[in-house]
Amino acid sequence: MKEVNLVMHFKEYGIMACGTVRSNQKGLPTGMKANRDLQKGAFDYRITDQSIGFYRWMDNKAVHLISNFHGSDVLSGNRTKKRWFQRRISLS
Known about the structure:
Elements: H1 2-12, E1 18-20, E2 43-47, E3 53-58, E4 62-67
């Protein structure tokens, strides 16, 4: 609950804050999708009446974020994987 109160307190003073929180933190909204329901790259979010955003994003494990300035807008984009090849060089 400390992090939730701190982010709300920052918002009152006009300080923007964003960070990760533990999933068992008190004060987080209920009703978000379970980890097993999210595939890698998927996310779920809740916005409170005080405009505090709680986000769960699935990477290899779930990442939980709290923010007082990010909204619910979803941006899309393409990401490409770069492959690094190992080359053999002969020193003759």
